[in-house]
Amino acid sequence: MNETERWLSVEEIAAHLGVSKETVYRWLEREKIPAHRVGRLWKFKASEVDKWICVGGAASLDGQQEQQHG
Question: Is the pLDDT of residue 70 over 60?
Fold first, then answer.
């Protein structure tokens, strides 16, 4: 049987990554994290977000933030 990956909420993806909800929302504002809008809600596939992390997506944002605030 083919198991379908479950969609995760902002809270769930934040917990999955070990970051705050505010960090996830910041990534959403910058349109960097792979996400899908369902009505007013943001939904995530853990596999898409994990792949984004592995190619350095989150790391490049951290550097931008340090430059802006540093």
Answer: no
Residue 68's alpha-carbon distances to 4, 10, 42, 47, 62, in angstroms, are 40, 25, 26, 30, 10
Over the stretch 42-63, which tens digit does the pLDDT of each residue have?
999 999 999 999 988 777 655 4
Residue 35: CB atoms within 10 A of its CB come to 20
DSSP code for 50: H
pLDDT digits (tens, 9 = 90+) for 23-39: 999 999 988 899 999 99
Residue 2 lies in a domain: no
Cβ atoms of 24 and 33 closer than 8 Å: yes
Identity (one letter) of the amino acid at 52? W
The total number of structural domains in the chain stands at: 1
Domain of 42? 10-69
Is 3 within the bounds of a domain? no
